Amino acid sequence: MEPGLLKSADWPILIDIYFFLGGIAGGAFVVATIAGFLDGQRYRDVVRTGYWVALFAILPCPVLLIIDLGLPSRFLNMLMVSKPSTAIGMSAVTAGPLHLKPYSPMSAGAWGLMVFSACAFVCAAETWLADRKGRAFPRVRAIAGVIGAAAGFFLAAYPGVLLGATARPLFINAHWLGALFLAVGAATGSAAIALVLGRLRGSAADMALAPVMRVTSVALVMQIVALALFIVSVRSAGSAGVDAALSQLLTGSQSVPFWLGAVLLGTVLPLLLQFGVIGHRVSQLTALRAALVLAGGFLIKFVLIDAGQATVGGPG
């Protein structure tokens, strides 16, 4: 679907939260699945925590979509629509005879959410059965893990691709938005796992914290690179509408939460703490680092979406 075919949309705060929770869920699930395949026994706490984080993070997402749609029955229209959507807004669901349209952005997102939710439930249930009932189903979990990891990658990156298909000046040339949202999902998902692990007692949980935070740091570096490439790709468009939209983010109304909150406190500071540049007893600051990463991840998505809506323009 060409970007010009999609009209500009207004994104309420519910959708910001949905994108944020979906990124956490996708990132945590992928980390848990990879940890399970690498060494399920050694990283048992990572696997267990990651799947439960993914499940609890994804549970509110369908509710948020249904609330935004206004009528629960409209969710069916997101799964099976009559024609390609002409707007990206969650309330812009087409009417008419229902049939599958996999190339519809809304339909693809809804199906991705359903597949991922089912896999998150299966993997969390399997870990619960193994822990509480002593009944493990490793093959079932492995299959659900592979399918869910693929859906998790999609769920984390999809909002960025979806935004790039709108006619907003800030997004229409933003070719790196999908990669940026994927990196944010990986960082926030692993940070959420670390935050929970930090509350658990035992040497196994303590040993799992270090590799999880290393994953978070790698994701943060990727996040910085993707953010820089996003800004460069948007600036290279060179039109007045795009420049005005980008200025909202870099020097305008969203510049303080962007630079101070999302970049400095939410990305750079956790990296400095991780590598011991700041502080002496860094190992005791895991909860702070994880909380900063989560706050920074939300702010990145929030300010980008808000700045993109601040300047109306482009085709549509």
What profile does the largest beta sheet have? none
Outline type: globular
**Beginning-to-end CA distance, first to last residue:** 14 Å
The percent of residues in helical segments reads over 70%
CATH superfamily: Formate dehydrogenase/DMSO reductase domain
- Quick one: CATH class? Mainly Alpha
Helix and strand run: HHHHHHHHHHHH
Instruction: Report the strand count.
Output: 0
Low-pLDDT sequence parts: 1-9, 82-96, 312-316
Domain count: 1
Helix/strand structural class:
mainly alpha
CATH topology: Formate dehydrogenase/DMSO reductase fold
What does this entry look like structurally?
There is one protein chain. The chain has 316 residues and is mainly α. The chain has a single domain, classed as Formate dehydrogenase/DMSO reductase fold (Up-down Bundle), CATH 1.20.1630.10. It contains twelve helices and no strands.
